[in-house]
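Standup notes
- DV: blocked on the single-chain target, sequence here:
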Amino acid sequence: MRRLRLSLPSTCAIGLCLIVLGGCAAGEQAAQQTNQKIIENTDMGLDNMTKSRDKAVESQILSGIASDPWLANVKDLIEITVSHNVVVITGRVKTQEQKDSIEKIVKNAVNTAGVKEYELKVEIDDTIPELPFAE
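- DV (later): unblocked, structure below
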């Protein structure tokens, strides 16, 4: 068996190389961790923006329905769900005119917010009581 003899300068050079390589690996790992944090924070920021937009669209639709006197008897029968820029309206109305009014309110809110998709799952139910001031 042959032994390898290293002089002091070559031992120092090898040690220095190992330190530099270890430092590079640690630096690369730190950079990867930093990049991951940036990505996570960006995703969180985008998610928060989407949630804010969803909430704004929902509020606009709710206030539109609440302010329409012809929808007074059905406003509590309508449910609005907004998630990731998709609006879904479910519930029941008394007349086709009420359904059309709700769709108009939804379209206005959707167009204002730039939402591209909505579903109107509103059924006509003639058993709903008439408005108190209806003829």
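- Follow-up: The first helix runs from residue 8 to 67.
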